[in-house]
Amino acid sequence: MVYTLLSQLEKDASLTDEEKEIIKASFREMTFAKKDLLLLPGKVSKYEYFIAKGCIRAYIVDQKGHEHNIRFGIENSWIGDLYSFFKQTESTCHIQAIEASTVLAIDYENFNHLMNTMPKFEHFSRLLFQYGVMANQLRLSQSLALTAEERYLSFIEKYPHLQQRIPQKHIASYLGMTAEFLSLLRKKITQK
Amino acid sequence: MVYTLLSQLEKDASLTDEEKEIIKASFREMTFAKKDLLLLPGKVSKYEYFIAKGCIRAYIVDQKGHEHNIRFGIENSWIGDLYSFFKQTESTCHIQAIEASTVLAIDYENFNHLMNTMPKFEHFSRLLFQYGVMANQLRLSQSLALTAEERYLSFIEKYPHLQQRIPQKHIASYLGMTAEFLSLLRKKITQK
User: What is the value of ipTM here, to two decimals?
Assistant: First the structure.
């Protein structure tokens, strides 16, 4: 599974065999069953997860007990609570496997050590965080400026295969609408 | 003004005189009057701005014509539309000076050149984007999980002097409430 991660890292810079060994030694492979929780509110996030296989969601539960999905992660993407991880403070998120998943987990000490000692890993991290800021910005502006239908069409364009893997109620929650509203929206779009 | 920026960069790593000269040459000082627009929707974001003096906001206008403030920037912080800047695509944001402001502006070519040729600048950018992702995550989780009163109290704790510098209507819009609701909330808090 670690080769999936290394090939992702090598998209940006070639790695020497020694660097590959150091990176491999910094990650632990873990497997989770469907519905397993990787993180709970009140716990400090111990790991950032590179998803080698599967599908994982991060969500917040509001004061009324409603779930709000804030991110989905699939193969070759990362998931975690970066705020809790880097501040080493209690998380406010749930992170849960939507499918049986295999991840490569890296802890705080190893992540910082790699960033501070291996310029190529810092380069990779810079790009990762840069894309993260850009994705957050796009999501925020779309949530404010687009109609519900436009948000849904943008979602299925960005994640064409996710609809088959994620329950509709989770997609609805990610898009800020009820499952009933999304169901009506999909019918309307199909009839067009 | 460029010394403000250099002292910010030097918090993370000391710079040689040569590196300082290269960084200085990569930025242009610009001044804006109150209410000047630095970026409009439909335009490609040419610059990222380091704010040396003043206060600047980024906002989205929704389809009903309502403004939604997405970020405020003050001295020693950055503002811009990173998505439009790095993708070199049309922006969806307005960026506007709330006060007369002096900024140090860097264009896409210079930003990328510094990141790709000066490891200390890449290190600085990595931290900048990392904090950006963390701040966005905190804001999203607070907008979902906190009450209006908690969001307001968190805002004034984080930005203790911003209330005096920014019209209440802009703070209300940032916090996702009407100006009238924020006014009632402030009265309620004062009376406690």
Answer: 0.92
